[in-house]
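Dear Dr. L.,

I hope this message finds you well. Following up on our conversation about the binding site, I have prepared a predicted three-dimensional model of the protein together with adenosine-5'-triphosphate. For your records, I am including the exact sequence and ligand specification that went into the calculation, followed by the structure tokens. Please feel free to forward this to your student if that is useful.
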Amino acid sequence: MSIDEPLVRVEDLEKYFWENDSIVDRLFGDEAVPVRAVDGVSLDIYRGETLGLVGESGCGKSTAGETILRLQEPTDGRVEFDGEPVAELSGSDLQAFRSESQIVFQDPFSSLDPRMTVGSIIRQPLDIHGVGTTEQRRERVRELLERVGLAADQLDRYPHEFSGGQRQRIGIARALALEPDFIVLDEPTSALDVSVQAQVLNLLDDLQNEFDLTYLLISHDLSVIRHVCDRVAVMYLGEIVEVGPVEALFEDPKHPYTQALLESVPRASTDERERDRETLAGDVPSPRDPPSGCRFRTRCPNVIPPDELDLDQQAYRAIMTLRERVERRDISLESVGDDGQFDPTSGGIPEEDIPEFVETLRTRLLDTDLPPRHDRIVDEALAELADENWDEAATRLREAYESVCERKQPTLENGDHPVACHLYTDGSDPFAETNPQL
Ligand SMILES: Nc1ncnc2c1ncn2[C@@H]1O[C@H](COP(=O)(O)OP(=O)(O)OP(=O)(O)O)[C@@H](O)[C@H]1O
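The resulting structure of the complex is given below.
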């Protein structure tokens, strides 16, 4: 692997989608709110390496891959391929880029005409780019079929006559047809049985060595990533939160999200499996309205409290989760207590009932004991909900508990193994004793 200039350089790449605005938005003429699928991604991909891109479903991996290849137009940012800005390519330069960079999808046939023979599927890029004579193209298709482990005489067959693994080999042959330098592999083995996965991954590895290929491997499967990649970038809600050499990332994950992701890999023993269910709790926030500051803070088990707050992480996390629910108005106030004893939504709660209303609500919403001072603050906030004063409740909690994680966006610094997390960039870890690995 060369450590020279990167083959692909991605800077602050953004891809927003304005499609699918809700009907309610349109009816009320509200301003369109885009899905921020890729929201400021910077990455370098070096010649001959395999860079893994990993993250939960919907975090923007495929959109990032397709935007890098200019299969989707970026909203903002810059991609350079071999030193050239991809957005500015046109004519023969764009055509050259289109042949030097390819993509392999999870199932290459889902979007292809099932009436096309395998030969014509693989030959199509050669036809489009006008490479060679008809006979030369036919010969090239035979070579490619053999190179990916299929018999050359199968070129007149149809996709449905092949197994999943064979079809993926055909997808790879098609991607190789124009002798590319760079291939985006988008979940290339997710649809395959485990035994077939290994064969396809080995084939990709052999081809990389033989043709000096550079790969961006998109996968949510951490064992595939670990097995195949040289470096890994971890993506969360449209952003990269950590990048590092594969061993460093797996042995010493720094970002709480990376740690949670690695912890969520199924384990062999039952005890471990039980533990795993606890990690990565909470819903992924909407990419239309991502949290301020660090996007992972709403689920982070290490969210940083204000200075000198006398709370352990569990209690602080519980209060932060309550705060988020208050801010999102995501607490049902219609029937609080046994048999809907309290209902602030029909004219508020009488003054004398407020302490009991607060007590009932706190028992429902917080399963952690708090020191008396914090009990008081939380109670004051919940008392505001007796009159549906959501904003006042949120303000009371924010004044007492605002975290640097929500105020400031952590940035990915330079270096071999950067991480975008205030636990590192601000130099101190307030939970170092409870989380010795940080
Ligand atoms: N054409 C589109 N129009 C609107 N939203 C889109 C479009 N394509 C993707 N999205 C949204 O962008 C976000 C990122 O999607 P993307 O497919 O890139 O994620 P992913 O990490 O590759 O997920 P998966 O592993 O499930 O494919 C999602 O919220 C998705 O719904």
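In brief: Residues 272-278, 427-438 have pLDDT under 50 and may be disordered.

With kind regards,
A. P.
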